[in-house]
Amino acid sequence: MRAIAEAPAKAIVTGEHFVVHGAWALAAALPRKVHVAVEPSSKFEVVSDQFGKVGSAELLPVSRVVEGMAREFSEKPTVRVTISSDVPGGAGLGSSAATMVAVASAFSKLNSLGLTVPELIDSAMVGERSIHGNPSGIDPAVCAQGGVILFRTEAAPKKVSFEGTRSLILSYSGLKRSTKGQIGHVSKMKDRYPGMFESLAAGISELSLRASEMLRADDMKGLGTLLTVNHAALMSLGVSNDALDKMVDLLLSMGSYGAKLTGAGGGGSVLAVAPEGKEKSIVTGLSARGFETFRATIPAEGVKSWLER
Ligand code: MEV
Q1: Residue 124 Cα, ligand 1 centroid: separation in angstroms?
Q2: How remote is the CA of residue 17 from the centroid of ligand 1, in Å?
Q3: Which end of the chain has fewer surrounding CB within 10 Å, N or C?
């Protein structure tokens, strides 16, 4: 018998980095998935289509999640974990969080632990902390819960519900980056310019709350304006770079309502919203320039798991 789990990728719509320091952020689960199978074995093993076998740095956090859960719930850590993914790693689209959440969910299912979404998030955070240092928890929260959430540290995520669907454009720069390094850079900026940082964080927190209202009201033009403002704040912190700024410019020049980097920056992906009639040509235009680009319909489901005999 084995347990299977699927968890969605994510996009931070607004508020990344500032969320680590207490601001509100808005995040959406995306309809791209990480698939995980967990089955009993004679030893701990993990195999991934992206990262090879256990021992590779990227897979160590998976063992942390399994060891942590096995210890906490008095279960055997000797399982074989198989991971396959439609989410590019290091692209700012939550590949690591989706993996940790899916591993936690499949391990829970295999051992009939019946963990709730908040408990799965806690288990996934053990792996997330070992990769990212001091993450806010927004990534595993949205990958586990699904849909769209408003998130701040020290509070339960708030679900943002709306009628129908919305669409986002995501485009991957092809540049991998370390979230840990980016979070560390922002903390240094906060230490060096505490007053400026506090005002920026308060502004972005307000911006995330307004962005959630605009998404709800289907005011994509208004949302786009806020995305571009948020990008400027991230540039001012030094977490953007030439490649991402050029992609944002390109998205704006092709008719997007607004665009920004999404996730930790320094590489990874950009996010845009655009008038319906322009989405196709924007996706084609960015793809033709060599950037992996797709249109994502939200809301998307959170983690799901089941047993296979
Ligand atoms: C990464 O998706 C979002 C960051 O804000 C880090 C975090 O909140 O854990 C950069």
Answers
A1: 15
A2: 5
A3: C
